[in-house]
Amino acid sequence: IHPLVGILLCVVLGGILCLIPAFLKMKYKANIIVSSLMYNYILFYFGMFLLAEVIRDKATGNMVSAKMESTARFDVMIPKTGIHWGALIAAVAVVWTYWFLFKTKKGYEIRLTGDNPQFAKYAGINIVKTVMMAQLAGGILAGIGGAVEMYGMYDRFQWITNPGYGWEGFVVAVLAKNNPAYVPLAALFLGYLSVGSDIIVQRCAVPPDAIPAIRAIMIILIGAQGF
User: Fold this and answer.
1) Which pLDDT score, from 0 to 100, does residue 185 have?
2) Distance between CA 51 and CA 35 in Å, rounded?
3) pTM (two decimals)
4) How far apart are CA 33 and CA 39, in angstroms?
5) Chain centroid to CA 123: how far?
6) Which class for 144: exposed (0-12), middle (13-18), buried (19 or more C-beta within 10 A)?
7) Which one, 92, 100, 118, 204, has the greatest CB density within 10 A?
């Protein structure tokens, strides 16, 4: 029950926070990607304030929170690995997202609005409501992802730099061509590339800047298909 309550709170907070960039887009025509990226910094530094002034474990002398209760953490699903029960939640999220986007009327409206908002408007789709709903769904998934990451991998909150998962998710979406069914493959590939690059840099004397350059070329080539 403990981790489920934590996930539920993250779902509520993630949904509410992601509605703000959508509101800015609908009200002031602000680019939703730019406003979201800038919004990340506001939330990040507010989080650092909470960490430093509210939840910090001063006994450690470091910028970390107090330890979470053991009942809040996910157990390991496969022994002798780091794979925990949060992986099952991720799998369910992938299936649900695919079903919602490609098998429901609301999902079709979201896809149509994203592809051609003018046509969607002429087709009678409420653009404002659809964009807000898409952002709400995205915020819910982000909240679940953050909770699973924290409860499965850490025993306390200890991030003092932005881990960049939002940008990584953007790259995964490009690789998966916005299809949830391909997201696990794209994410595993990107994760393998990241972990493998660390090993190559350590063992083969390859400059660390070479790996991001390879990733950048790959993404440019994939993105170029759209042109």
Assistant:
1) 94
2) 24
3) 0.84
4) 10
5) 31
6) buried
7) 100
| Cα–Cα distance, 84 to 150 (Å, whole number) | 11
CB 55 within 8 A of CB 137: no
Question: In terms of Cα–Cα distance, which of 143, 138, 132 is closest to 109?
Answer: 132
Residues in Cβ contact with 130 at an 8 Å cutoff, skipping those fewer than 6 apart = 106, 109, 110, 113, 120
CB 140 within 8 A of CB 15: yes
Kindly report, residue by residue over 149-189, the tens digit of the pLDDT: 999 999 999 888 888 787 788 888 888 988 999 999 999 98
Q: Is the dihedral of CA 191, 197, 198, 203 positive or negative?
A: positive
The DSSP result for 50-111, as a single string, is HHHHTSB-TTTSSS-BPPPPGGGSPPBSSTTSS-BTHHHHHHHHHHHHHHHHHHSHHHHHHH
Contacts of residue 2, defined as CB under 8 A and 6 or more positions apart, other chains included, come to: 69, 71, 72
CA distance 102 to 202: 43
**Under 8 Å between Cβ of 141 and 64:** no
